[in-house]
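Page 42, continued from yesterday. The earlier attempt failed because a stray header line got pasted into the input along with the sequence. Redoing it now with the clean sequence only.
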Amino acid sequence: MARTPRRLLAGALPAALVALALLPAGTAQAANIAVNSGFEAGNTTGWTCGAGTEVVGSPVHAGSYALAGTPAGQGTARCAQTITVEPGTDYRLSGWVQGSYTYLGVTGTGSGDRSTWSSGTSWSELAIEFTTGASTTSVTIYVHGWYGQPTYYADDIVLDGPGGGDPDPQLPSAPDGLSGQASGSNAAALSWSAPGGTVTGYHVYRDGTRVASTGTTSYTDTGLRAETTYRYTVSAYNSAGESPRSAAVEVTTAPDGGDPGGELPDHVLTGYWHNFDNGAQPLRIADVPTTYDIIAVAFVDAVPGRNGGVEFTLDPGLSDRLGGYTDAQFRADIRTVQARGQKVILSVGGEKGTVWVGDSAAADNFATDMIGLINDYGFDGVDIDLENGIHPGPMSSALRRIHAAGGEIITMAPQTLDMQSTGNGYFQLALSIKDILTIVNMQYYNSGTMLGCDQQVYAQGTVNFLTALACIQLEGGLRPDQVGLGLPASTRAAGGGYQSPGNVNDALDCLSVGTNCGSFQPSTTYPGIRGAMTWSINWDASNGYRFANTVAPHLDRLP
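This time it went through. Structure tokens are written below.
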């Protein structure tokens, strides 16, 4: 989305997606200080590893053994090691990896968490250089795969620099604040607060039996029975051992057919509402017609000096254009449209959005503030429209916590470049929260040409552009009911890529029933395709609601 039109370079292709190792200037010192770096002990001594990891004899990069990790469910098959280091000192982390989307990273440096990744069928080296902060005495290095991907292999993970020797952390205390809620009929979404001290990860127990280990403060337990109550506890662990378990929480799953997305229609129209004045028709929330099923309030503001912190204030310029629109009236309007069956969510980002959720502290700030705004105003959820970079790990953790606290609707509006590959951050985020994700409304505009799922180049402004790019998401792991088509409401709403609402309907027909296609014909149909989105309701109002009046009735006629 954009408050003012923006333009991206035409012809942007996936070559721009190549991941580069983070290699700042600096000179590594001394020798390797990682324990069991080549797994030559024949086990994971020195490492703390999650489910799906084991030491194998083949393939190996060097020596007799290597680490193998097979991600499953919400796990990434992560292995980590905490190492004593010296403050204000240069270090180099390197490792050899093989397999799909294998990550090498370091946390706790005092100068920013860093990671890099590769994907391939042969061994390749990953490397990161960093300088420890003035008070940093230990860092945690790690390697892991990615959700739903095949087995990865890692070997010869080396941390070069002075120091070494395992820190001697105390046994962690029990996690606090465990909460949970049903995520449909077969899943429970859990979240908790991290205890003080050194924590490597967490064990999740269902009815007294350990069911998962995770490195984050949230977890969604899947494969459950409908209308069944489960009792959960969580413990923390590090190299000293496992903490006592947390206080228990009970979660009762929904009946079969329970909708974690808030009882939305099968096909929905989403639109953005301007909390600013940019020349489009100003509107009160209650003025939004019922053709819009989801109203995304654009946007929250970043809290200066607090990474991940967000706040919301009704724009005084908009209030002036409306002849006076108070915060109390805005809140009352939210309740009014909700009573009509519409959902109101709070959007984060836009072209000028500067919200940064890049580490665990920022994720905690973001989740805390969003939950507060949802509870305060009565929003139904959150929309992620960050256009200046996204960090899937921390954001996934934050969204799970928001969802567990009652933010039932979670949508995203990535740009086309963000969804060209499952290796992209937005795509990784979508897949990692697939069990709680409502819709991805990709922006099919302001992008120039892009590759479709058939590896052919398509130009924006055509039916082919919509269908061939939607196909990437549909074949890349998202369910059809999680895919929507995002388009500008008028030529004034975007810098490029506008196409008629009739074209949007043709693309929906092509994807859902195989008719009205352009030259690109999907290999199958997707009757559950969720719908469409427009930037914005205000620009649509300025254009006589042509988009909503054309697309919304057509959505009602889809299978």
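Notes: The chain is about 20% helix and 30% strand.
Reminder to self: strip header lines before submitting.
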